[in-house]
Fold this protein.
Amino acid sequence: MDINKFEQLVRASTDTLYRVSMSMLKNEHDAQDAVSEAILKAYENLHKLRKEEYFKTWLVRILINECKLILRKSDRIISNANEKIPEITSRDNPYLSVEVGEAINSLPEKIRLVIVMFYVEDYSIKDIKRVLNIPEGTVKSRLSKGRALLKEQLL
């Protein structure tokens, strides 16, 4: 893959990267740092990408690892339900209300990440399985648990 193709694919993925990092880090500065670091690491390790069609999945996996590294370094607690996930309620999904965004934000990290990837980013269950490196059944159970928790909070 040449630099122009890499740049084109990264530009097409930036909104997704930002939303995924915000859903994990809940801090704009940290989210931007994580996205920047993930892009840099992807560029440095581009030779390790086996199939170009999995570029976005591969890049999101790098981003998730970077977010986890930032969380470990800063020793943060993720579950602050008073903050909103800015990008989830914005232009990319105008049908999502503030209440739903806050409810999603209050979910446990593992469930929230799967919910955001599936419902906001339109990842398939198989893609989520591949990105998070978890069994398909785990993805389905987290989606089910997330829907149940959201239903409980919103009704």
About this structure: The domain at 3-154 is CATH 1.20.140.160 (Butyryl-CoA Dehydrogenase, subunit A; domain 3). The chain is about 70% helix and 0% strand. The chain has one domain: 3-154.
